[in-house]
């Protein structure tokens, strides 16, 4: 890999967690119907250009900013760091990487103070900040608790052509890998990495990028996610349920993927596991294991592999999308050329419940 | 319809509920692993030929009999009636229908007394009994309560070529329809009908028959069903999860379909609604409504439409399967010739979340 | 028992289920805040004198009528019968009993047609009707589904001095007992009886009566009940949580008791069991079994035993309350004179987890 | 406060999390029945002197060690640190504090390597280690998942007479306070503090100490905790349910307290909130707020305030218990001399649901 991203000589900022995403939407009213009326996120501020939303247990100003604009895209993946000094550290770090950076002591959006935004080596608009306006933490406001309540921002997911290249860069930045998907040819298809002690704060999905694959919010329990499905059915929006609900193999979380009015993908997620120890065991999944993406073997729909949101540079222009040249997870696992197994040969725990390496023909395209 | 089944002049028996199914399995050890070790049904009796199983809240002897035999099939759909006099009534009723009947005062299986089995007009082996051995109702034995506990037998589902013909016969027998699926050409694709005040004790699914589509057990909550999926994943049996979990349109229940070692289909089911009033509103679903079978619009896999279990006559021989000549639900809804919508034109409750009559292309075959 | 209530010679009406309660409240706005804003019941009709409410899965006009009046009381315990002929039957039945009856073909309240109200032999205002306006069954309106959604009316509970006397009368009326509480002196403290195939449509609690002990609504799952507690905490109404949540011994249901602004007691209830078979096993609990009222041995607060709502005669005057002369369940189980055990002598399933017949001293008054 | 614990000049160890507790039990078979058969903890190792147990999602060797001994007590509160260098740091830190320390490179128990145990300034036996044997993380072994599965060790709770003194010491050691209980006289009754980003890794409860108040395990969902209650009811062990289930005010978690055969108190706990940001808002509860300990206002039983387990010194002798001289939370809130309110004057969110400052008389002793 000739284009390896070097590790800067200056220290990486101390990142606490993924904090918020700023997304550009093309119809604020439709987006409000989706995020506020359907999903029940709580409005911290809104005007005719932007809506600031937070989850039930959040005390920083917001976890999501909807900004009206001409092209649906992502304006920022924003991480909270431990202090203002870490904002300085982030700025120096990316400058040494030769990335374009922009520092604004008053913040790029409301409710956030001194921040730096960068065009990172993978082409993503990353932001780092510490200062934020504290808002009412609603965690005991059960009078506001909806049946499908979103209680925390959990993670981002980014599409990038070369996963090992991106992983090395993020590990240098202080992220720790918890799980990944590989094949026996040495191809990495995806990797999950964290700062806050859960399975991830962000993940890299192999594909044409830079693009934003999804942003994920947590619920308390599984039934909360089921309620979101049920409500989308009641609103005759079931065609906006893209995938799930299901149990992930990777992360062990219960999940759902839905699409907002601009096709930004939102994941609803609950019950992954603690990863905060430095020797937390890394789990590598075989790309041909049919339970890696869905523990119940339910198929991943093709759109989930192929569709994603554009990301913006610091001028607000969409970044060019670069094609993945490594193997495609979809191609190696789905359809006539693909191959997946439920049980590796000789692996069956129970008395031969089907074929030796059974998988779900009917479910595959 | 020239072959209409006449209503007998004698009164129909007073049926309480679906009570148990006797199924023939080809490997008792494998079936035991499935029903006892995986699903946690409770053994009321077992020997090297049969296993008698009951659900957590049952007090009659069993809800399922596994009988070792050469061909996987269903030996009896058994209903409990209000009294022994109703067994007499059932016998007289089917005799007048010209059906073959067999009465055994000592019962056909253990734990059941005076019974009649019949080859019904649709070709199904129906049984009616009142006498049964009471066993310990385990409903407060939480020391035995597994994470995916099955608490009640809920219903049967039968495949028959001519649904209106079967429906008329079952309505004469005292069943009341709660929901059905039709098209605007007057074709009925399926009908649900009950005795016990839930959505159904049995349902008719249009297709080649007589065959047994599935038998369904209830759980208390939705997470119990998710646990069954998770456990099947852990046992590397995810290829035996055929469809779901999901929310039914019809019945409003949360569901899962799994396959036993002989491909007998088992549904796990929870939270339908009370239907015991005589004017309970019947719900008719349009066959093209993409939320009728799954409220979240997730696709029905083809095997669910095409595969089903043979049923036996009173000699233990498989009944001939007669082809459905009416339209196939699968053909009119799935694939190139099919058509389904999420929203009827002009029906959207929310601001145009997708196409006018959106449905999930990626999910269809 | 010299005052036994004779069984009429005419047939009893065919009762389907408890259908609604009409309660008199003294401040309609406060009651609306409780039943609509807090509990999320759905308004079928309201004006400045009455509010008609229904649960999520109901299709008859209402399950609860709040009528503004000077004295908090219960105006009617209303049962739905199978047909108008059964309203006639009810009228004849109570006339033969010598009870005062009033028939109104236009109904006593909105949404209900031909009805009879009676002052029953125990002093309760009972109503019987079949005709009702069908309203939208909201069972799939998950866009309206709150986190603590009440989905069905489950049962009434009535306080009466002489439980066996009342039980005999209700059994004659067609109710079937599922569970009761007795002591070894032959005293019955309470009895549960049903029509619709659950543990009860009504129950008799021994005490000064006639009074209304509570009316109960069902939720789908246990977390829905917990949410109601959490919401009452958030609204700083925890002093209106009277008892629970807990698991009943009797009925095996998960429960909560809360008090409305007039101290009418509401139970929230989920997951009892099927009782529709004629030989459904009756469970008799020992009054000294400390798990009979709460399976976890948590104490019953004294107010739960002593407080209840007045009931009205057909003129709208409160019925006189007659003292119970049999033993009081509270007195025989709570406090210095009471006695309860967790394990009967020699009954421990586990190795002596405490005293031989352990109970919770700290929890008792 | 003349006996303030000074902050050492050497750096504090970098503590990751509470990792395990070693408790002395007097009957290993009874304890095994409790922790393995009832609670379903997984055995990592056992012999006739000790049982090593872990929770479902754990990968270090154990979360609980049961050691057979003559007196029920706690032998160690063990924290995992980031590295072996942090074990050195811990040793140096406590040596500077003048505490007795003992270093064992081979560990004090199986599965743990280089460790230091100390008699800390509050009299508790604290342990610090990094090295541990990795065992199978069972987090996807849903074939082993019980209905009341314990998935993580969550926290310790320690009784100490002078909470501010202990809090200052633990803050110096690197713990961060998330919540506390105070009165307007400046008395602190309890404090919660964390390392791992949840509400706590340990808490200080004001009372006679040093004693161990409880050790807490997490479940995934609330129903898992309810199942533990239900199972204890089925096993006729309800008198070993000491308090709950309920919703905490402090921490917002759903909780249950049960007692093991030696009266060691175990909490089952789920769904507190993320606290990992350095400016995480601290919540101070008024000791008179009747929802602080139970959000639903259910009473705290006296035993919960008064009973706790002895702790051992490094010779295995019970530490002397020193009386609390500050106000007792029980005395200021329960009984004739106590005072609690549900609503502060003028605080009611809803229309006067009861008394101005309502609380539950009937529930108080
Ligand atoms: Ca709401
Ligand atoms: Fe994700
Ligand atoms: Fe079914
Ligand atoms: Fe009740
Ligand atoms: Fe705790």
From TrEMBL, chains A, B, C, D:
Keywords from the named record: Oxidoreductase
CDD domains: HPCD_C_class_II, HPCD_N_class_II
Keyword Oxidoreductase: yes
Domain VOC: 17-131, 152-271
Molecular functions (GO terms): catechol 2,3-dioxygenase activity
Keyword Oxidoreductase belongs to the record: yes
EC number of this enzyme: 1.13.11.2
Pfam families reported for this sequence: Glyoxalase
Transmembrane feature ranges: none
Name the record gives this protein: Catechol 2,3-dioxygenase
Biological source species: Paeniglutamicibacter sulfureus
């Amino acid at each position: 890999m000739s284009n390896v991203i070097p590790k800067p000589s200056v220290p990486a900022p101390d990142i606490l967690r993924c904090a918020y995403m700023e997304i550009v939407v093309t119809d604020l009213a439709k987006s409000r119907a989706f995020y506020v009326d359907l999903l029940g996120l709580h409005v911290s501020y809104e005007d005719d250009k932007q809506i600031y939303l937070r989850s039930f247990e959040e005390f920083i100003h917001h976890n999501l900013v909807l900004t009206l604009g001409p092209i649906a895209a992502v304006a920022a993946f924003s991480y909270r760091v431990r202090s203002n000094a870490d904002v300085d550290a982030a700025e120096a770090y990316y400058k040494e990487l030769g990335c374009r950076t922009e520092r604004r002591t008053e913040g790029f959006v409301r409710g956030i103070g001194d921040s730096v935004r960068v065009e990172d080596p993978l082409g993503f608009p990353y932001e780092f900040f510490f200062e934020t306006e504290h808002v009412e933490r609603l965690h005991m406001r059960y009078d506001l608790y909806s049946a499908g309540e979103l209680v925390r921002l959990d993670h981002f997911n980014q599409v990038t052509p070369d996963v090992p290249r991106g992983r090395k860069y993020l590990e240098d930045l202080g992220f720790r890998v918890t799980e990944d998907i590989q094949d026996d040819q040495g191809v990495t298809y995806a990797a999950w990495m964290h700062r806050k002690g859960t399975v991830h704060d962000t993940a890299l999905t192999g594909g044409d990028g830079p693009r934003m694959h999804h942003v994920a919010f947590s619920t308390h329990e599984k039934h909360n996610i089921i309620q979101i499905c049920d409500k989308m059915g009641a609103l005759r929006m079931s065609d906006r349920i893209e995938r799930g609900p299901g149990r992930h193999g990777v992360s062990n979380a219960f999940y759902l993927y839905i699409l907002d009015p601009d096709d930004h993908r939102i994941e609803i997620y609950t019950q992954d596991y603690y990863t905060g120890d430095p020797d937390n065991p890394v789990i590598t999944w075989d790309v041909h294991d049919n339970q890696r993406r869905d523990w119940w073997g339910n198929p991943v729909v093709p759109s989930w592999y192929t569709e994603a949101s554009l990301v913006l540079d610091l001028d607000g222009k969409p970044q060019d999308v670069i094609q993945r040249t490594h193997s495609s997870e979809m191609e190696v696992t789905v359809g006539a050329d693909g191959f997946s197994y439920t049980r590796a040969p000789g692996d069956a725990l129970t008395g031969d419940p089907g074929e030796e390496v059974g998988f779900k023909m009917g479910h595959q395209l």
